[in-house]
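Researcher: Please generate the 3D structure of the following complex. Treat every line as part of one assembly.
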Amino acid sequence: MVNSQYYPGNYGRLEVGMRVRLLCIAWMAWFLVQPASAADRALSVTIYNDNLALVQDLRDIEVKGGRQRIEFQDVSAQIRPETVSLSAADISIVEQNFDFDLLTPAKLMEKAVGQEVTIVRVNPATGAETREQAQVLATNGGVVLKIGQRIEVLRDDGLPVRVIFNKVPDNLRAKPTLSVSVNGSRAGTRRATLSYLTPGLGWKADYVALYNETDSKIDVQGWVTLTNSSGTTYDNAQTLLVAGSPSQLDGAGQTIGYRPPVRRQTLQQPGTESGSRERLGDFYLYPLAERTTIANQQTKQVSFLDVHDVPAEHGYEFRNRWLGTAETPLSAQSIYSFSTSAHAGLGDQLPAGTLRFYMKDKRGDPQFIGENRIDHTPMGSTLSLATGDAFDVKVHAVVEKRTRISTFDWQTDMRYELTNALPRAVVVKLRQEGLWGDSSIKAESQKSTRRSAEVAEWPVTVPANGKATVTATFETRY
Amino acid sequence: MRAAALFGLGLAAASTVSSAAEPQITADPPSALIVTVYRAPYRNTGSIDLNYLNGFALVSETRTVRLPAGESRLRFEGVADGIESVSAIVTGLPAGVIEKNRDARLLSPSALLDATVGKAVQLMRTNRKTGKTERLSGTLLSDAQGGVVFQGEQGIEALRCSGLPETFSFEPVAGLSAHPTLSVVVRSPVAMTRQVTLSYLSRGFDWAADYSAVLSADAKSIDLGAWVTLANSNGTGFPSAHTQVVAGRVSHNGDFVPIEMGRPILARCWPRGSTSDQPMLVSLSDEAEYERTHRMFKKSVARDAAPMMSLAAAPAAQVQQEQLGDLKLYRVPERTTLASRQSKQVRLMDRSGIPVTAIYGVDFAADNATFTGPAHRWLRTKNSAANHLGLPLPSGTVAVFVDHEGGRLLQHESGIRDTAVDEEVEIDQGESADVQVSKTDEGTGIDSAHAKLLPLVPGVALRSVKVDDIRRVEVSNARAGEIDFELRLRLPEGARIVRADHPLEAENGRPIFRFKVPANQTVAVRFQTQRIDDGILRTR
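Model: Done. Output below.
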């Protein structure tokens, strides 16, 4: 017998036995079920950036003394049951259950197999009702009933028949439900804290920047945006937002939250200033000033930043990939840059989100001119955001000539024609990328700066309604 | 517990909201509307697709609100259903906007059921014979997976499994509205009436320019007219709105939380197979339902679409252009109604007598593949004031027409990109069967006498030789007049043309031959390219 424990078949049987015992306990516990009161609960919700929240739920539970089961309603429908923890004075936890067998008519009938139900036949001619007791025999494809000594298929003739069940089976729920079996050493009502992690709650920042063209300044408003798709409403919750992404593991043991590579570098100069915001380790905390209700399927925004007259710079940038040659001119990107430092900038660290730029039109109405994403940005940083293409500033990059100098050496002659249809001169940061390996500039029409081994940059002034040309000769070796 | 729940519902019926204590104020309908339509960010040329409008719009609504003193929840009903709620800005309120909310749930049968689970409800059952309706009070136990379970005094029953006509009669439910609604919680020191402006970005808009060019009889000039075609696929209309469109590509990803329009209630029951062998019950799947409504919508949009090629140059009020940062803004001169699921056209421009040059040409690789086919045809001009243009041309489509016996014939339709002032404009006119081009490989010469050997490893070397290719391109012209021809070539890396019997030019770093082909004649161009070819050679 001891040896046979090693056989998987017997092991399985052992499991079944245990499960039956657990079911018995659960059944016994049904009579002792105590729904945890949700009326005078105090909720606090800590929301992280990556679709993750920590919910702490304080409510009064009535402990009877001895073994009892407590059901928790109004917890997140997406609760991660393995993260649940309950604490209260003078109780010990026997087990935690998360039931996700949902109460549907089909399940109700299936669980009634072998049990008695009441059927009510309605006479279609007279409307008279006839009641009978029936035993449900099977529900495979159709419902087979035993009425007295006869066997019938439910509603086989299509005539109306009501079926009335006596009770709802134990573990069928309208919503997935969390229950905890506890041993209470002392009877009485006491405060219990239930805490768990749940996906479905997340937040990010949304910024509104109004650019003033005449004095080149921006007004920036920041909003934190909460979204709740967890299936549950959190009433009157004390809310704390954490800027940062704690690493999470999924079932397979890999980190989730893959971040695609950023194409253009938004953060030009990382800042080194410290603000007055509350921190937790390396995360910044944004507590909401007041308790709030986060309804299911709701998007909620709360203001956290309002700064006026921050100096901003508007410029143009064009990036050409290696051997990039075009038949028609392409638009340069329109770039807005500003600082987040305390003395000449926004004076705050910025949680990751989307920054939308607006500008007033001739009639004074603000119009949208483009947006871009920013990452978590420390205070004192320089940010540079591309809002879109410039209609009037274009660059025509052409590979003029590719010459083979020797077996492994090539010479590349590039010409860049910059055009400006605006009535004012502009400066375009012209960048040639892809200079990896041993690439050098043999000749150029104006001096370049090498931002990195990879990128050469020419600041090109293009006169109003005019043109400018840059030529460069590159030599590349493998 | 039961008593408490009923008490809660009673409260809900009285104040229409159960969760929030603050009073609800509904803002007046918009008194002024501004709609600025942006193009689909990733479309370079071409017209809009009414089936799927990829652009967006900035909507600004001015509304009157009457705020009580203290905290209140201000509701803006009837915003566009494509609203990107995170972009919403409310201005004109007294200092404290505490929070902004958008609830993505609308009042629907499934939302009613969902909100009533675990609460009191009345089951109504009508006797078909007597017509008498019986009302049973009870609790809705579950609406999981589309099946509804009800607990009454007699016991537990499932809805619509008995074959009797039965339905629910609900208590009023708070927080569900008929239209997409944005709300803000605001604190006001005193009661006041204010004009506030709500601005937000919304999906389901797009616009493009639709040009029509009429080519003169001598094919030397065109008359160019254009419409701005804008469309709204939202279920919300914008009556009497100041309307603008913006040209130029703006960076916009969109941040859209779809509105839950309510899933259909399927009233799933237990297995209902019978002893007679009946076919499987086919239920209308969600997908089919979506497809059906989607197609209906498509049709209604298509019906509203205005004819694209309005040729008659009836005088129309033109949009006014102004600079907006690095973008171009076009203002529709009068207030206009942009109805739900509608496309609309406004005149963009009308210019005549624009000189154009018709060019024939081909663009192919100078390799040894044989090619025979028709030449391409372009109309070329410059977007300058001297050419009666000199204005920004937003991207879209160009349809070229020719006059023919009192009527007009469509010649070709093609896309046009955003064109700034003083840029070249090239209007594609498709292929011309009258001008045929053939490319022939005449021979290859390898200069093995001067081959260079580069030893790599003992016994193996890299052999580099000069390779000369001679090609001939023949252009035949079956037209009655002389044509201008451009032969553009793509050379292999490092190759160059060393000899040619026609003058050689370079454009965009590529060789190009420009020549004329007289009427009913054929012109041949011969050229020799030279390149260095590498190969691995075993030396022993």
